[in-house]
Every structure is written in structure tokens, then in C-alpha cells.
Amino acid sequence: KQGVTVHVGDSLNAGDLVEVRDNKDPNPVVTVGAYDTSKAGEIQVTVTATDASGNSSSTTVTVNVVEKEEEKDTEAPVITAKQGVTVNVGDKLSSESLVSVKDNKDPNPVVTVGEYDTSKPGTISVQVTATDNAGNSSTATVSVNVVEKEEEKDTEAPVITGKQGVTVHVGDKLSPGSLVSVKDNKDPNPVVTVGAYDTSKPGAISVQVTATDKAGNSSTETVNVIVLEKEKPEQKPEQKPEQKPEQKPEQKNAGITSKEQGNGLLASNSNDVAK
């Protein structure tokens, strides 16, 4: 027969499974082979008919075993996420390390772990799904802390080298690059911060610079800075117009002449006659 359906725990009889006819024996003996209806699912049952002459034939019948309506499983598995799950970078995750699962009827629900990435340190969320044999399923999200392997763990702080002879002018701002150079064993770009400072007046000040890498290691360096007055623009001396020397009026001595004669000087006056 087709479409044979029974409930969990039911017994099977030949009349429910097959119809039998024989050419001479009106009542052949019909036997049902071993079967198991203890759980829901599809089973195969062998039925054999033997007539009075000893002739026999067998057929296999498909039987669908279902739960009784009042016993039908509609309850999903219960997933309990584990707390404080920690793995190393690159580790694979198993369902057992993430959750515990219980179901009201299925002792072994199928548990699957969703996609995840443990390639770098940090906190990730992983979905875990449990499905029982009745098709009921539930999902839980588990928080997982991914850490570096102990031998690879970064515990080394950045190295800060303070620059020498740093000089700025009054009112200037200070940048990390003008004060220090920084190197770290693993982090190519540590975060560098400059502490409070005051360049509002000339003098020597001390400035603290801190570098922190992505692993949280930090170091601090104090840099000495000289604050100078701003240079005033050079002023050229005022040029006065050139003054020409004052010319005195030419003095005339009327009638006076001089002659150089020999070793002496002969002076004559127009009013006198040399004798």
C-alpha cells in the first residue's frame, strides 16, 4: 500500500501494509518482518505471503512514522552560551567550546558554528545554531576574545627619542614630529600625544610626549624647549637729505696785491709807492 502512516510506538499488521491474493489458497499466511516505530521517521518493512503449497513472495513497504499530535515536538533546543571564551590568534572554534545544548526530545541536536575571523586580536561575535530532529532550531551569539599567543604577545613599549636644541618662538604650537622620533617593535604608527605646555612667554620649558602602541604599551619622554621672542623686522635708519656746505661770500681786499720776489714778499698798496 502507498502512503502508509502510523504513530510512534504503533504496531504494524499485515492488513495495514498489503493486500494478498493467491490463485488457489484463499488465505495465504502473511508475515510482517522486523520494524521499529519507536521514533519518528521513514522506515522500510518487509512483508511475506506464503500459500498452502509453500509458495511465497515478499514485498517492501515504506511506512512513515509520525509523532502523535499531542506528542509532536515543536520545542527548539536550548542553547547556553559560555562566558569568558578566549582563544589565540588563528585558532579554530568548536561548538563545544562556545555553547552547551539541550533538547526536550533529541539527545543529539545538530550544532553549527557560523562564520568567524580569528586572524587578529580583538573581540568577535560568533553565531551558533542548534537544530533537533523535528526541525526546530535556535541560535545564540557568543562573545569570543581573540588574543595573541603568549610567545607573540607584544609587551614592549614604543621607543621615544627626544630631539635636542628644540627652539620655537613665543606663541608657536608644538607638534610631536618637532619634538621626538618614535619607533615600535610591532606597531608602525603608534599614537603620539604632546602634553600641556605654555609658549606664551620667552624662556625654557619642559614638554612631556607620550607614545602608545596598538597593544596598549606606552612610554613617555620629556623634551626641553627654548621659547624665543619673535624677531622684530629690521628697521633701516632714516635717511636725511644731503646738506651742501654753506658757501661764504668771497672777501675782496681792494688794492692789495702780493708778489713773490726772490726770497721775499713784496707788498704794495695802491696808495703807497715803493721806494
From TrEMBL:
Gene Ontology terms describing biological process: homophilic cell adhesion via plasma membrane adhesion molecules
Highest taxon in the source lineage: Bacteria
CC annotations in GO: membrane
Compositional bias per record (Polar residues), positions renumbered to this chain: 207-223, 254-275
Entries under InterPro entries matching the protein: Cadherin-like_dom (IPR002126), Ig-like_fold (IPR013783)
Cadherin domain boundaries: 36-160
Molecular-function GO term, any one: calcium ion binding
UniProt biased composition (Basic and acidic residues): 228-251
Region (Disordered): 170-275
Record-given protein name: Adhesin
Species per Swiss-Prot/TrEMBL record: Bacillus cereus
